[in-house]
Amino acid sequence: DAAEKQGYEHFMLKEIHEQPRAVADTLLGRLDADGRVTLDRLDFDPALLRALDKVYIVACGTSHHAGMVAKYATEHWAKIGVEAEIASEFRYRDPILTKQTLVVAISQSGETADTIAAAEYARAQGARVIAVTNIVGSTLARTADGVIFTRAGLEVAVASTKAFTTQIIALSVLALFLAQERRQMFAEECRDMLDRLEALPALMERVLEAEEGMAELAARFSGADYFMFIGRQVGLPIALEGALKLKEISYIHAEGFASGEMKHGPIALIDDGGPVIALATDGHVKAKVVSNIQEVKARGAVVLAVATEGDTEVKEHADHVVYVPDVHELLYPVLTVLPLQLLGYHIAVALDRDVDQPRNLAKTVTVE
Ligand code: AGP
Q1: Ligand 1 atom closest to 159 (CA)
Q2: Are 35 and 195 in contact (CB under 8 A)?
Q3: Stretch 95-106: mean pLDDT, rounded?
Q4: How confident is the model at residue 272, as a pLDDT?
């Protein structure tokens, strides 16, 4: 056990630090000899993707949050409507599925019962299914019409970390593939975006150097009994993921909100000293998040913001700021989630929780 942890106290911390390497592996060989983006397997004519009417992304838990992140890039690059859905809800309504519908099923294990059932349901209605999974021989990988592997390596901790960031990367490759096949992006544009993805591992290393600071903040915040995470656009799924990470391993109640929704209810929860974690990196929604930070500050919240290196505005309003390098707006999630994983981890350690095996949870949920 100790040897497997390679000097780390927990598998979760080891896996957090493995992310730059894992993301680099996800990206290996994604261009074919003709310079075109490729998946690991596709059993149907990619020309069919030109006539798509809709994309549904189905997944559970952290994988669902990766799907939410992918919605933005897929709509923006491939110019197709995308809904990111919780797999356990998908087949209990009447989703409109045709032969022109693409369903992307994301599952680290490839064995999550609800995700497999959602994919099967979609296939039975004639839709095509592409799997995004970490496990080559998994049920999902074997039954889908196409697959892209995340190549994250074995993830032992129940709390998913490297599976999440590699899913976002694999889904970005898939979005570029769709953009290419649908002729919405030129080959050079796809390659430029792949270059930007390939630059991420080195930037992730830099963010992970902030661990000590996150451990100090965790010690400060570990007495709180409620955390709020707020974000907009790609910051929203990261707010949801930060809250999920914290609650599953520390057992502290945490919730993520679209920051624009605060005034419609959640802001009533704010009282003196309550921690609010805000995703406030550069982009077209930053000014709005900054104004949301001011609103919660005015009501007594203590704000920890995640902002872009070089930013001077966010620190005027937040109590603590952790910085991530400047990247394309749609690529921030793989950087901004890192300090939130570290925060959750160090709070759980400070509270002496069973970090790798949290109560009531299984690594893979194979029953409904
Ligand atoms: C996250 O930390 C989880 N433990 C959980 O939400 C997980 O992501 C979910 O159960 C989905 O698993 P899968 O990716 O193997 O399908």
Answers
A1: 2
A2: no
A3: 96
A4: 84
Pocket test for ligand 1, best of 136, 167, 365 (most atoms within 8 A of CB): 365
CA distance 154 to 128: 28
Q: Is the CB of 357 under 6 A from ligand 1?
A: no
Based on the number of CB atoms within 10 Å of its own CB, is 179 exposed (0-12), middle (13-18) or buried (19 or more)?
buried
Is 54 catalytic? The answer is no
> What ranges in 98-227 are assigned the alpha helix state H?
113-124, 139-143, 162-181, 187-198, 200-208, 211-221
Angle at 72 between CA 71 and CA 77, to 5 degrees: 105
Q: Which pLDDT tens digit goes with each residue over 134-184? A: 999 999 999 999 999 999 999 999 999 999 999 999 999 999 999 999 999
Q: What is the pLDDT of residues 239-294, one digit of tens each?
A: 999 999 999 999 999 999 999 999 999 999 998 888 999 999 999 999 999 999 99
Count of alpha carbons within 13 angstroms of residue 221, beta-carbon side: 32
Starting at the edge strand that comes first in sequence, how are the strands of the sheet with 253-258 ordered? Answer: 253-258, 226-231, 275-279, 302-308, 320-324
Contact, 175 vs 74, CB < 8 A? yes
Q: Sort 223 into a burial class: Cβ within 10 Å, 0-12 / 13-18 / 19+.
A: exposed
d(CA 140, CA 109): 9
Query: What pTM, to 2 d.p., does this model score?
Result: 0.97
* In the predicted structure, residue 1 carries a pLDDT above the cut 80: no
CA distance 61 to 109: 12
pLDDT score, position 315: 97
Indicate the pairing of strand 82-86 with strand 101-107: unpaired
User: Does the interface ipTM go beyond 0.95?
Assistant: yes
User: CA–CA distance from 280 to each of 10, 11, 120 (Å)?
Assistant: 30, 29, 39
> Please, which residues bridge with residue 303 across strands?
276
CA distance 50 to 178: 8
- Asked if residue 131 has its Cβ within 6 Å of ligand 1, the reply is no
Average pLDDT over every residue of 352-366: 93
